[in-house]
Amino acid sequence: MGAATDDPLLWHLPISHYSEKVRWTLDYKAVPHRRRPVTPPAHMPVAYAITRGRGYTFPLLQIDGRVLGDSTEIIATLEKRHPERPLYPSDPEALQRALELEEYFDETTGPAARLLAFHEMRSDPDAMAEAVAGMLPPPARSSERVAMAAGQFGKAFAALRYGSDSDEAADAARAALIESLDRIEAELDAGGGDYLVGDEFTVADLTAAALLAPAVQPPEGPKLPEPPPAYERFLAPLRERRAFEWVKQTFARHRSRPD
Question: Are 60 and 68 in contact (CB under 8 A)?
């Protein structure tokens, strides 16, 4: 990545779609930076310490002597600091639409995709173990016993942190994901092109695609285990939808990574 010790430092969760939103932005803009992955739930006290008690979630970006703890704020800062390859439209009306869509996907799609993935993995210990073990250091990752223990801990953490043990919450998450696909298709139909706002890739496209990555699992996205059977039954009919394919194509076109 060619980063120096004074370059921005990203604290992130490898499987997190909100972390992916920021990683994608940094890579898209070719911003030299450093990355520090942390395994949950250890990220919570780390975030609390870095922010001096102001937050306990990732991603966090340390940049220019500041700590930014919100993906929207991070992108806004990077737009000012690195205006090349802009994610904000230059037209004020288009910018307002793009920011409104970013907020919609942040508030509706992101939480739903996360909760439902954890909910469905509750009945598949191997999938939960694979997901959590993928964030462990390599020596620990190779131990099946450690991986299964980490998976059980991850299951309990997700239930406490996100309410993933609730069937009612899972039903609401399914509805929210379908609503998100409907919203993408409506925006594409309204614009008549391949992008949600205007005819260029914007923060709206990046956010929608990044936050749907846990469901769509594009090859360029975070590496996740195969969906458990119950999750796959929900996803199967959605795979034929235009919005589902749009997420894959958006990643394929715009999710380049530095060597």
Answer: yes
Q: Which residues contact 165 (CB under 8 A, 6 or more apart)?
A: 119, 122, 159
* Residue 233: pLDDT over 50: yes
Which are the contacts of 80, defined by CB distance < 8 A and separation ≥ 6? none
Q: What is the pLDDT of residues 27-62, one digit of tens each?
A: 999 999 999 998 777 777 888 899 988 887 899 999
Domains and CATH numbers, the chain: 9-81 (3.40.30.10), 92-254 (1.20.1050)
Contacts by 198-202, CB closer than 8 A, 24 or more apart? 198/89, 198/91, 198/94, 200/89, 201/87, 201/250, 201/253, 201/254, 202/87, 202/88, 202/89, 202/94, 202/98
Average pLDDT over residues 168-195: 97
Each residue's pLDDT tens digit, 133-158 = 555 555 555 556 644 544 554 545 55
Q: Write out pLDDT tens, residues 57-70.
A: 899 999 999 999 99
Let me know the angle formed at the C-alpha of 196 by 190 and 198, rounded to the nearest 5 degrees: 80
Q: What is the pLDDT of residue 227?
A: 86
H helical segments located in 105-258: 110-121, 125-133, 138-141, 144-162, 167-191, 203-216, 229-235, 242-254
CA angle, 157 then 46 then 54, to 5°: 95
CA distance 56 to 43: 7
